[in-house]
Every structure is written in structure tokens, then in C-alpha cells.
């Protein structure tokens, strides 16, 4: 008799997209009748694991699913373990944008955690081909299956009154960091000037010289409610996303599902999501004028904006469909459960 699949997620609460990935996956699995549970660990479990009590896996669990950064203290290899790579911070392309402290932490601590997780894994997945290739280069592991992130198209969908706003309204959703190109936002918006507005998640405190923030940048603070985030997309004209490195960004998938053309960097995993001149504009990394020209092109060409909006929503529904993606994880859980029986 086959044992029913039960998936345990020991997860550090980091306040990132990985948290949202885990919560969403658990909700989807439960809706399919699969028992799934998160054991939340405090943020300092990432860098001070010995100060946090190690949880025991539930008796009903047949598979453990972890993020590659999790310390081995928090998962038991007596259960088959699925490791998911959400990004690869060891990518040489990211080095110029790291502080000395970040370089040391990633190399001396995170690298060792990920190496251990990959060596102990029963199965490895990555959220993009770019992330998988980076991990193969860094860790030498070749058996990595690509399963992309997904988007909830019942929650994120296009607005009926798209492209009726003036000024032309841009949106940036994500943590403010150099990796995500947040330092480029004031320069882009200053060149765009009047007639364009950028609303961004976070606070002006991140920008070191607050007086240097142009008036057409509006801080939204930190938003954790997905319904509020979905409403933001529906009340915007395009996503501005000059990120330098992404595993596979949920914000881009959500924007596309909401019918927003995406103006982003032609780097890392972003070309796997955004199709040039079809669902958005791919700009040369760090080239401020490229982003400015791409935004102005969308604002000045309503027909193009409308076509991209429809194509973006269609691509999100087709390729990043929750039912299809979660089904791939379920296949792995069943395979690992049967192998353990």
C-alpha cells in the first residue's frame, strides 16, 4: 500500500520572496489534498543556527523540502530531501555590487551551507535555467531540474482601465538593494521628468542622500498584503525593474499576469520571462538611458503598450501557471515517497 505524500518545510522566516514561495506552495498542496506544513525558524537561524533548537520532522512527513541556504542542523536526512535553489549569490556577475561584508558572508558561510545541502539532497530543483547553470558552475552538480516560479492568476489579473492614467505610472516591487538595481531608480526617474511617476515599495531611508530623490518617486512603505500588491499592479502602467541578478522574480510574473509590460535588465534569468518587444523591453544592464528610452517608448505608443499588456498576461497564464508548476513538485514528492516506501 502506497504511503500518502506528506511534505515538511523547515523554513527561515526571512521576509523575502522565498517566504512567499513556501507559503503559496503549501497552500496549493493542501488544496490538492496533500498534507504539508511549515515549521518557521527565526531569522537568526540563518547565521547563528546553534542558538535555535532543531525541530523534529512530523511523523506523517515523507519528504523534506528546503531552501538551499538552510543549515543541516534543521533537516533530517532520514527523510528524502528536496533542495530548491532560488538564486545563486556566488555568480561572478554580482561581485561588483556586493559589499566586502557580503562577499565574505556569501563565500565563507552561505557557500558552505549550499554545498552541504546539495551534497545531502535526494533531488535538486532551481527556479530558472540561469540559476541552474550558475549552480552547476559553482558546485559542480549537474542533476538540477528547472521548475519555474508561478503566479496566482486568480489574484493577479489585468485592469479594465489600463493605460488611462496620467502621469504614466511606473511601479517597482521588491527589496531596495543594489542587486535589484534600486540605486538606478533616481537616475532613471530624474531623466524621465514630468509626465512620469514611480511608486516603489520600501522607504526613502534606503537612499543615502534623501534630498537627491526626485519628486516623481513615491515611497509606498513595506506592503505584505498580497491583495494590496495586486491592486498596485492594476493601478500602474508598467513595471520598472533594473535588477542585476534574479533567480526568477515573482514581481515580474505578477506584473505580467496583471497586464503590465516589463522594463528590465537583459541579465540573469530575466530574458527567460520577458520577451523583447513582445511582453516588455530588455535593457542593457546599468545603462540608464536604455531604461529611459524604453519607458518613453511605451508611454508614447499606446497601441504597442496595449499589445504588450495582452501578451504579458497571456505568457504568465500559459507558462507560469500554478496548476502546471505545482504539479511538477507533486510528481517529485511522489517519486521520493515511493522510493522510501
Automatic annotation (TrEMBL):
InterPro entries, per database record: Glyco_trans_1, Glyco_trans_4-like_N
GO molecular function, one term: glycosyltransferase activity
Domain Glycosyltransferase subfamily 4-like N-terminal, chain residue ranges per copy: 68-155
Top-level taxon of origin: Bacteria
Record-linked Pfam families: Glyco_transf_4, Glycos_transf_1
Domain Glycosyl transferase family: 163-314
Keywords noted in UniProt: Transferase
UniProt GO BP: lipopolysaccharide biosynthetic process
The protein, known as: Glycosyltransferase involved in cell wall bisynthesis
Organism from which the protein derives: Marinobacter gudaonensis
Amino acid at each position: 500500500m502506497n504511503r500518502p505524500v506528506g511534505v515538511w518545510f523547515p523554513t527561515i522566516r526571512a521576509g523575502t520572496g522565498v517566504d512567499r514561495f513556501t507559503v503559496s506552495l503549501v497552500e496549493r498542496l493542501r488544496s490538492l489534498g496533500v498534507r504539508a506544513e511549515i515549521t518557521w525558524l527565526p531569522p537568526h537561524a540563518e547565521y547563528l543556527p546553534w542558538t535555535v533548537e532543531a525541530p523534529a520532522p512530523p511523523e506523517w512527513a515523507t519528504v523534506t523540502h528546503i531552501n538551499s541556504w538552510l543549515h543541516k542542523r534543521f533537516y533530517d536526512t532520514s527523510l528524502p530531501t528536496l533542495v530548491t535553489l532560488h538564486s545563486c549569490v556566488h555568480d561572478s556577475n554580482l561581485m561588483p555590487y556586493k559589499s566586502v561584508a557580503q562577499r565574505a558572508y556569501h563565500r565563507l558561510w552561505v557557500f558552505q551551507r549550499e554545498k552541504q545541502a546539495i551534497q545531502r539532497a535526494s533531488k535538486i530543483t532551481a527556479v530558472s535555467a540561469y540559476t541552474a547553470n550558475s549552480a552547476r558552475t559553482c558546485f559542480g552538480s549537474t542533476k538540477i531540474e528547472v521548475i519555474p516560479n508561478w503566479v496566482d492568476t486568480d489574484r493577479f489579473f489585468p485592469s479594465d482601465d489600463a493605460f488611462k492614467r496620467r502621469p504614466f505610472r511606473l511601479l517597482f516591487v521588491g527589496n531596495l538593494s543594489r542587486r535589484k538595481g534600486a540605486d538606478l531608480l533616481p537616475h532613471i526617474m530624474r531623466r524621465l521628468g514630468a509626465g512620469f511617476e514611480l511608486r516603489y515599495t520600501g522607504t526613502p531611508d534606503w537612499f543615502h542622500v534623501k534630498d537627491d530623490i526626485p519628486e516623481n518617486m513615491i515611497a509606498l512603505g513595506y506592503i505584505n498584503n498580497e491583495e494590496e500588491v495586486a491592486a498596485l499592479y492594476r493601478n500602474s502602467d508598467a513595471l520598472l525593474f533594473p535588477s542585476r541578478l534574479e533567480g526568477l522574480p515573482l514581481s515580474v510574473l505578477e506584473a505580467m499576469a496583471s497586464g503590465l509590460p516589463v522594463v528590465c535588465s537583459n541579465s540573469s534569468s530575466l530574458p527567460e520571462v520577458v520577451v523583447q518587444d513582445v511582453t516588455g523591453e530588455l535593457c542593457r544592464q546599468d545603462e540608464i538611458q536604455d531604461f529611459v528610452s524604453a519607458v518613453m517608448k511605451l508611454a508614447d505608443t499606446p497601441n504597442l503598450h496595449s499589445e504588450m499588456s495582452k501578451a504579458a498576461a497571456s505568457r504568465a497564464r500559459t507558462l507560469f501557471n500554478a496548476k502546471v508548476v505545482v504539479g511538477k513538485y507533486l510528481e517529485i514528492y511522489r517519486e521520493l515517497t515511493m522510493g522510501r516506501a
